[in-house]
Every structure is written in structure tokens, then in C-alpha cells.
Amino acid sequence: MKQECKRCLLLESAEGGMLESIKEKIDKLSPEEKCESEVYNERLKKCKSCDNLISGVCMKCGCYVEFRAAFKKQKCPNVSDRKW
Question: Residue 55 half-sphere exposure, CB side, CA atoms within 13 Å?
């Protein structure tokens, strides 16, 4: 049985197929929708330090953080402790 990876992104877990699907969707975002790569990487760094991240999924909202973090207008769903 495969264990859940706490505080891991899809990039670091065995969810390669899902990661590729998310990367394809991110690549299709328009420049108006997509945040800068520096912002994206900083958001993912903050997500990795969050107790609500399990196997690339935010337990606050159920999203894949690698997808949510790519959008300019998105924010951390943890209302009590917004990381970004």
C-alpha cells in the first residue's frame, strides 16, 4: 500500500500522469491568467510548509496546489493563515 506523502508536491510524488496533465493545463493558460514563474515557485514553497498539503492536494479546498498556484488571481484557501 502506497503511503500518502505529507507536504509533497505532485512533482515529488509518484503522481506523474496527473502532474503531466496539470502541466499541460498550465501551459494553456493565457499570459493574463498565469502568474510569473518566480511568484509560482514562491507559492509552491509556501504550500510545502503547510500542514494542509498531502500528496500535492490542498486539504482546505481539494485542489492540486501546482495548478491553483499558477493563476494570478488565486490565493491560498486557508483563510485563517493565508500563505499567499
Answer: 9
Q: Phi and psi of 53, rounded to 5°?
A: -95, 125
Q: Which band of pLDDT confidence, cut at 50, 70 and 90, is reported for residue 47? A: very high
Mean pLDDT of 53-58: 92
Q: Which residues of 60-71 are buried (b: 16+ CB within 10 A; e: fewer)?
A: eeeebbbbbbbe
Q: Is residue 31 part of a domain?
A: yes
pLDDT at res. 59: 95
**pTM of the predicted protein model:** 0.83
The partner residues of 71 in beta bridges, in order of sequence, read 34
- Supply the range of the domain harboring residue 32: 10-81
Q: Tell me, what's the pLDDT at 58? A: 95
* All three cell numbers of 66: 501546482
Cα(70)–Cα(25) distance, integer angstroms: 10
